[in-house]
Amino acid sequence: MENLSEDLDNSTLNCTINHNIHQMLSPVIYILVFVIGLPANCLSLYYAYLQVKVKNELGIYLFNLTVADLLYIFSLPFWIQYVLQHDNWTYDEFLCKICGILLYENIYISVAFLCCISIDRYLAVVYPFRFHQCRTMKAATVVSIFIWTKEILSSWIIFRHSEVTKDAESHAICFEHYPIKNWEHNINFYRFVAGFLFPFFLLLFSYYGILRVVRKSHGTQTKKKIQIKRLVSSTISIFLVCFGPYHVLMLIRSLFESSCDFAARIFNIYHISLLLTTFNCVADPILYCFSSENTYQDFAKIVNTCVKCLRCGQIETTESYPMSTPETAKKIRDQTDLDPK
């Protein structure tokens, strides 16, 4: 192994933690997310491009959200190999930092763009005319550049520290320290407040305002109301299920983890919560599906096509002309009767 830092944390070196959950659960989840998430996000990227093409600012946020998911998905093969080798990183430390940044920063880039989507929908529904200048392609582009710049700059803190350490079995552990190091505490507190708690209240405020206006609106069609409610419920669900448990346990670790014993007790549940964040890459395409009625219908058509393909054995029956309706068949018979030939 090349370029591994010799400055190993003694507490990590002396910690003996059972990593069996990584061999049992993590590879299954990573492979599942990779197999489902890659085509789903490629499809979402295409639909986001179509939205951008028709000058819909929401497409800018969805496009960036999908790009963030794809970048993380491309790092999954490295994590799959890592966990299958009993948490032993066989590449250099630079690649460990890149994969770790893609893993963790994908969380906060996703959170940021989920907030952008919620604010965009809030302004569109509650103040459709007052803040129109905030809902332009130019504004969405500027906000997206700011988010990416902020997350890239915050990654510099990670590059300043060693991210490959050795455990009691001399395995090279990538991006994890047991117990967590002193410099990580402040970063974790910042991530919990600015990366989870504040965005969560922002989502609640935005969608509460949206639902309140939609309920009082008598001019809004029922179909449109259902679409808006789908977007609200899917965004809140993705946020709570994928990001909630991880941030709560991250806060607990930062407050109470000071020994290997505590790290060992919380290890399994913490990594299960970390795996939940991975499902964000599969959930975001569902969010995109619910954000647009046309996209929802397109996804429904794709699902129906897949179902028909799976039932192809049942289609090949004596009904050889499924495209022919009774009206069409009657017209054919009438034309046959009138034809002198």
UniProtKB/TrEMBL annotation:
Gene3D superfamilies per the UniProt record, alphabetical: Rhodopsin 7-helix transmembrane proteins
PROSITE patterns linked to this entry: G_PROTEIN_RECEP_F1_1, G_PROTEIN_RECEP_F1_2
Transmembrane segments: 28-49, 61-80, 107-127, 139-159, 189-210, 231-249, 269-290
GO cellular component: plasma membrane
Residue span of region Disordered: 321-341
Membrane topology note: Multi-pass membrane protein
Keywords from the UniProt entry: Cell membrane, Disulfide bond, G-protein coupled receptor, Glycoprotein, Membrane, Receptor, Transducer, Transmembrane, Transmembrane helix
GO biological process: cellular response to pH
Pfam name, any one: 7tm_1
InterPro entries attached to this UniProt entry: GPCR_Rhodpsn, GPCR_Rhodpsn_7TM, OGR1_rcpt
Compartmental location: Cell membrane
Gene Ontology MF, one: G protein-coupled receptor activity
Bias type Basic and acidic residues, positions: 328-341
Stretches assigned to the G-protein coupled receptors family 1 profile domain: 40-288
Family the entry assigns: Belongs to the G-protein coupled receptor 1 family.
Name of protein: G-protein coupled receptors family 1 profile domain-containing protein
Organism, as annotated: Phrynocephalus forsythii
Taxonomic lineage of the native organism: Eukaryota, Metazoa, Chordata, Craniata, Vertebrata
